[in-house]
Design a protein that fits this description.
Number of helices: 9
Largest sheet: 6 strands, mixed
Strand order of the largest sheet: 6-7-8-3-9-10
Strand content: 15-25%
Number of strands: 10
Shape: globular
Mean pLDDT: 89
Oligomer: single chain
Structural class: alpha/beta
Order of helices and strands: EEEHEEHEHHHEHEHEEHH
Length: about 260
């Protein structure tokens, strides 16, 4: 696993209110290329709000986001995509009546150019889709099959591949295996590890600590919108993380070790 000296994303003192509800309170989070970073915590811990801020789905009320060391404003999904931040939500947002290449290039279709600039280049989209699926080790025998007839694991893989296709550096996954069986879950996490090994950053929301410890490099715990702490998987245990989730207290180590100290 390749390690990088500095985070690609630094979220500093992030705040978000929804009326009288303080959803995220003064949260710091660092994300490195070449890692799988899990966000864990009970319901209403602030996990979804934090990833929506990073993905541009909602605007932060306060705080700073640095991308590759420079301050950036992410006020809408287009801003995040421009930076190479892509998100796969639980509903996947796939077009069931279309095949794999059409879903991967949905909204960013390849055309023939020139006088034929309004004509889809289906051959190019199919070729690039095959190449992408091969690079990510995704096995879909017939990519011309409509995705409505595919398994949950195949659909999740297509949604992830669509993100990676357009030069994503960070892929955010919201409970990617919540509705999948054991074998399909195994395949999705194999894809997650493959993305990490290719130098991407994966930010993962999960309630399953077994999956987190099997597949992630670092874990950040949130409770009621606050940062409890970040731990490297190799240096903690499920019991320690569970205590942090329940108590909202990091029993040892600095609460902001999610920067260089937790990754170095």
């Amino acid at each position: 696993m390749q390690r990088f000296e500095k985070p690609i994303v630094e979220m500093r003192r992030i705040d978000k209110h929804y009326g009288g509800v303080h959803a995220v309170k003064n949260v710091d989070l660092d994300i490195y290329l070449g890692e799988v970073h899990a966000l864990v915590g009970d319901n209403a811990a602030g996990k979804s709000t934090l990833i929506k801020i990073l993905s541009g789905a909602v605007a932060k009320d306060a705080g700073t986001i640095l991308f590759d060391g420079r301050p950036v404003e992410i006020n809408q999904p287009r801003d995040a995509k421009y930076l190479g931040i892509e998100t796969v939500y639980q509903d996947l947002a796939l077009a069931d009546n279309l095949d794999v290449p059409s879903n991967i290039f949905l909204g960013r279709e390849a055309t023939r150019g020139g006088l034929l600039r309004f004509v889809l280049n289906n051959r190019e989209m199919e070729s690039r889709s095959r190449s992408l699926l091969g690079r990510l080790k995704i096995n879909i025998p017939n990519i011309r099959q409509r995705v409505r007839s595919m398994s949950g694991g195949q659909r999740q893989s297509i949604a992830i591949a669509r993100c990676v296709c357009f030069n994503a550096q960070i892929v955010i996954l919201d409970e990617p295996t919540a509705a999948l069986g054991v074998e399909e879950t195994r395949k999705v996490y194999a894809l997650v590890r493959e993305m990490r090994d290719q130098g991407l950053a994966v930010l993962l929301i999960s309630h399953n600590l077994n999956h987190v410890f099997e597949n992630c490099d670092r874990i950040t715990v949130l409770k009621t919108g606050r940062l409890v702490g970040t731990r490297r998987v190799a240096e903690t245990s499920q019991d320690d993380i569970l205590r942090m989730i329940v108590s909202g207290v990091a029993e040892s180590g600095p609460t902001r070790e999610n920067a260089r100290a937790a990754w170095a």
